[in-house]
Amino acid sequence: MNNRTKRILNRYVIPPLAFTLIYLISLTLKVVEIGGDIREKVEKDREPIICAFWHGRMFYYPYAFYKSPIRPSVLVSPSGDGEVIARVLKLFRFGLVRGSSYKKSVAALRRMVNVIKGGSSVVLIADGSRGPLYKFQPGAPILAKLTGRPVVLTSTSYSRYWTISSWDKMIIPKPFSTVALIYDHPVSVPSDCDDECLERTRKELEDRLRSITDQVDEYFTKA
């Protein structure tokens, strides 16, 4: 495949197909919420939050936010793969912040701060775009410190799903299965939080997100 063909596919073919696949599968799912009062309060308050979830649990969230009054922005890599993701997210009406958490991370963080101070929520992938799996990256607590806005953790699980053989163990729900969403109470970070405090907070967020992920998985194993 030459570069021109690949560029056409990545820009004009794959994004609408991915959007359609995610939308149609998500539309068939029965939804169960754990901690739905937390989501309702966030939507009612309309104040910016920093939402974080694992990379491998992201499938349902584009549709969930598409149906929500919250219109968050997402940090998306400027790479070729990032361009595909960006175009899919634009179809789901997400705002985009182009940048990398690995290269020029300070510039990317500055853009996210500006988005939040402008009144919009942001979404961060907790374990980043490269992992390691379930290793909470430091971006969310730093962003919370700089903006004064809380981190809200969330995770998903499904009654029936496929698992992709990738570093993130991505799970994709089977049509007409049940999706369980869980939300954790907001975590704030003081503006005077030093490096040691930030690391404690990062570890706390990692432990809490792992815990609620186990909890939402148990919803089906115990059913």
What's the helix and strand layout?
Layout: H1 3-28, E1 30-34, H2 36-45, E2 50-53, H3 61-66, E3 73-76, H4 80-91, E4 95-98, H5 105-117, E5 122-125, H6 139-147, E6 151-158, E7 161-163, E8 171-173, E9 178-183, H7 195-221
Parallel strand pairs: 1-9, 2-5, 2-6, 3-4, 3-5
Antiparallel strand pairs: 6-9, 7-8
Helix pairs in contact: 1-4, 5-6
Structure in words:
This protein is an alpha/beta fold. Helix 1 runs parallel beside helix 4 and helix 5 crosses helix 6. Strands 1-9-6-2-5-3-4 form a seven-stranded mixed sheet, sandwiched between helices. A two-stranded antiparallel ribbon has the order 7-8. Strand 3 (73-76), helix 4 and strand 4 form a beta-alpha-beta unit. The chain is globular, with a radius of gyration of 17 Å. It has one domain: Glycerol-3-phosphate (1)-acyltransferase, CATH 3.40.1130. The chain has helices spanning 3-28, 36-45, 61-66, 80-91, 105-117, 139-147, 195-221, and strands spanning 30-34, 50-53, 73-76, 95-98, 122-125, 151-158, 161-163, 171-173, 178-183. The longest helix has 27 residues, at 195-221. It contains seven helices and nine strands.
